[in-house]
Amino acid sequence: MKNNNLTEAREDDGGNIDGRIVGGEDADNGSYPYQISLQKSKRHICGGSIIGGQWILTAAHCIEFQTPRHLRVVAGTNVLDGSGVRYQVEKLIPHQRYNPSTFANDIALIKLTRTISFNNRVGSISLPRYNTGGGRQLTLSGWGKTSFPGEVSRTLQTIKLTTLSNSQCRRIFPQITSGSLCTVGDPGRGTCKVSENYLFE
Q1: Exposure string for 71-98, b = 16+ CB within 10 A, e = fewer
Q2: How far apart (Å, rounded) are the C-alpha atoms in residues 201 and 193?
Q3: Of 160, 169, 177, 189, which has the fewest Cβ atoms less than 10 A away?
Q4: For this protein, what is any one GO molecular function term (predicted)?
C-alpha cells in the first residue's frame, strides 16, 4: 500500500477545476483503492482518501461553504464518468484551526451515512504515525489539469515526488507553517507549481 497520499482539486463557481498534477501519468485501475472523488451535483470538486469504514480525509477548503446533503463521495473508480459507488455525507469536520486566508491546517474529515463496502477496488489507507520529514519518496494522486493552462484530466493521475524538510522549504517559502509539506519533482512536474523546480503543497 502506498502512503502519504495528498490530493487537491478545486472547482470554482464557473466549473473549472484548478487543482492540477502536471507531468503525471494515468493511474492503473484499482491501484489507489483509497482514492475518492468528492462531488456536488455529480461534478468533481475535490479528492480525498478513505481512512476508515465511514471516514474520508480531505482538505478543509474543499468543504468550506458546503453542506452535507449537497455532497456525495464516489469510491471505486479512476475515471470521472459517472461510474463508482456513491455515498451520502453525514457530517463535515474541518480542522478547528483552519485558516482560509493562509490555508494553515487545511485538513478535514468527512463522515458518511453508511459504511463503505471494501473490495479489490475500494479500501482504506493507513495514516502515518509520525510527521513526514525531508527526503521521503511520496506518491501523489488526484484529478485536475495536467498542464497550465490546459484541459482537465478525467482519468486519475499519479506522480512520484520527494519531500523537503520544513527548514529547507522555509528558505524558499518563508510563510510556511510547521504543518506544511513541501515536495520537489523534476522541472515542470508536480502539483501547485510555483517555480521552475519547486512545488508548494
Answers
A1: bbbbbbbbbbeeebeebebeebebeeeb
A2: 9
A3: 177
A4: serine-type peptidase activity
Tell me the three cell numbers of residue 41.
451535483
| Closest by CA position to 59, among listed 21, 109, 107, 91 | 107
pLDDT tens digits, one per residue of 126-150: 998 888 899 999 999 998 777 766 6
CA angle 105/87/28 to nearest 5° reads 80
Compute the distance between CA of residue 11 and CA of residue 13 in angstroms, rounded to an integer.
7
How many whole angstroms separate alpha carbon 42 and alpha carbon 37? 10
Joined grid coordinates for residue 195: 517555480
Type of residue found at 199: L
Classify residue 16 by burial, with Cβ atoms within 10 Å: 0-12, 13-18, 19+: exposed
CA-to-CA dists, residue 114 to 85, 86, 87, 88, 175, angstroms: 12, 11, 7, 8, 40
